[in-house]
Amino acid sequence: DTAVSQTPKYLVTQMGNDKSIKCEQNLGHDTMYWYKQDSKKFLKIMFSYNNKELIINETVPNRFSPKSPDKAHLNLHINSLELGDSAVYFCASSQGSPTSGDTQYFGPGTRLTVL
Amino acid sequence: AQSVAQPEDQVNVAEGNPLTVKCTYSVSGNPYLFWYVQYPNRGLQFLLKYITGDNLVKGSYGFEAEFNKSQTSFHLKKPSALVSDSALYFCAVRPHTGGFKTIFGAGTRLFVKA
Questions:
Q1: pLDDT digits (tens, 9 = 90+) for A38-63
Q2: Dihedral sign computed on CA atoms, order A2, B49, A90, B109
Q3: How far apart are CA B27 and CA A10, in angstroms?
């Protein structure tokens, strides 16, 4: 069984469209994350939820909106897609204790290409 | 500002030779330190972490890392490199305070030549 899964794996779309990426974890973790990896492989945190509560919200355009329907799912919706949104988006999860060095488990990534 | 530096974009090593991938950090207090590896078209995989205790940490696939508090470094090492170790390696730091945010370095690409 895949621990952290993302759908779709590839997403090709036109500028101005709205799209969603879904993430699910079956590890029983309390915390989930969205990261963006650009073409230079730099990894940047976007959002994090702990027990369905938003706890990290980095400087991200408000076209990006995360939603966590339950602890096992964290979806990312992107409105009015722009060329600069093209990247690989990774979902991750961790046990979620803020006082421990908990390990993050990453999904396989979603490669978004905006044309 | 809190940051993680991986000074080498790329490290080249011959198979069988020892390898070192460098990482230094700048955070307040004592952080948790991590190494992750990313193979092509894959997500990041956890290699090892330093929480507390022994400064030498052993991890997956024969990798180890040494925490040096005075130099604020956490270099990744392996005594004998394999071609299959070729990948992108990320150092990451999580401060003890400040919640759940983990700061990742820019990554170092390791090439192991047969």
A1: 998 899 999 988 888 888 888 789 99
A2: negative
A3: 36
Are A27 and A93 in contact by the 8 Å Cβ rule? The answer is yes
- Report pLDDT digits (tens) over B76-106: 999 999 999 999 999 999 887 766 688 999 9
Answer for the pair B100, A48: CB distance below 8 angstroms, yes or no: yes
Query: In 3-state terms, what secondary structure has residue B62?
Result: helix
Q: Containing H/E element for A82?
A: none
Among A34, A38, A41, A43, pick the best mutation site for testing chain B contact (most B Cβ within 10 A): A43
Q: Which of B44, B48, B50, B60 to substitute to test the interface with A, most A CBs within 10 Å?
A: B44
Is A64 in contact with A36 (CB distance < 8 Å)? no
* Residue ranges of chain B whose CB lies within 8 Å of a chain A CB: 32-34, 36, 38, 41-46, 49-51, 88, 90, 94, 96, 99-102, 104, 106-107
Query: Nearest 10 degrees: CA dihedral of A60, B49, B93, A71?
Result: 30
Closest residue in B to A96 (Cα) is B100
Amino acid letter at B61?
A: Y
Do A33 and A14 contact (CB within 8 A), yes or no? no
